[in-house]
Amino acid sequence: MPEYSESTVHMQAPDAAVSLPVYGPVDLEAWAVDAARLRAGRDGDARLIEALAVELGDAAADARGRAPIVALSYVPEPRLGELARIELSPLVADETYPAVTVDLLHRYLAMPTDLSFRPPEAERRTLPAGPAVRVRHAYVQEPDRDGTGTILETCAYGICPDDKWGLVLLTSWRALAHTDTLCALTDSLAETITVTSAR
Q1: d(CA 42, CA 100)
Q2: At what angle do helices 28-40 and 46-64 cross, to 10 degrees?
Q3: 3-state secondary structure the chain
Q4: Could you say which of 5, 21, 106, 185 is the most buried, measured as most Cβ atoms within 10 Å of its Cβ?
Q5: What is the sign of the dihedral through the CA atoms of 11, 12, 16 and 19?
Q6: Spatial CB neighbours of 33, under 8 Å, sequence gap ≥ 6
Q7: For 153, what's the count of Cα atoms within 13 Å in the CB-facing half-sphere?
Q8: pLDDT for 145
């Protein structure tokens, strides 16, 4: 497999996803209004469109700071806003880690932190794009002095198309009632990732 800069990475987006503009100059406010109107439908309520536009604009601004390959806001029910964020990002080898391996991605994604709500759950998988590790994790966001805060759940895949670079697919959400559905969505998206050489 070629190195990342010489490859094309593709992932199929779910029908209810809004693709966030993560590269190039863009008027985020105007883009967000158009995207919200499109997602809410021709007869969407003006207040719904306004609220969704603010949420999509914030999501795009947040994702642009990380420069992923793909960033999606998953909005199956526009009246409820963003249900989950989905990002596919590269992880390139460097002097500290000259080779990207599944073991390295396992350690990177499954490392507990001070904000971990429970221990991460990891398992090896084989995907069309290469060997992978799947990790489920949950974090406490903005905890108070008693440790109480909002739970953020994640389902991630670390994928190794090549030993010089890897891919991290990360879905995150706060709507805990949808955990099983969103994990299944992440599983299905991971299967659609393809890597092709430009050579």
Answers
A1: 46
A2: 130
A3: CCCHHHEEEECCCCCCEEECCCCCCCCHHHHHHHHHHHHHCCCCCHHHHHHHHHHHHHHHHHHHCCCCCEEEEECCCHHHCCCEEEEEEEEECCCCCCCCCHHHHHHHHCCCCCCEEEEEEEEEEEECCEEEEEEEEEEEECCCCCCCCEEEEEEEEEEEEECCEEEEEEEEECCHHHHHHHHHHHHHHHHHCEEEECC
A4: 185
A5: positive
A6: 49, 53
A7: 17
A8: 65
Average pLDDT over residues 15-20: 96
Q: Render pLDDT for 184-199 as a digit per residue (tens, 0 to 9).
A: 999 999 999 999 876 5
Percent of residues, the chain, with pLDDT higher than 90:
76
Residue reference for tokens 């003006």: 46
CA distance 152 to 136: 11
pLDDT, residue 1, reads 32
Q: Could you tell me which residues are beta bridge partners of residue 10?
A: 194
121-132 residues labelled b (16+ CB within 10 A) or e (exposed) = ebeeeebebbbb
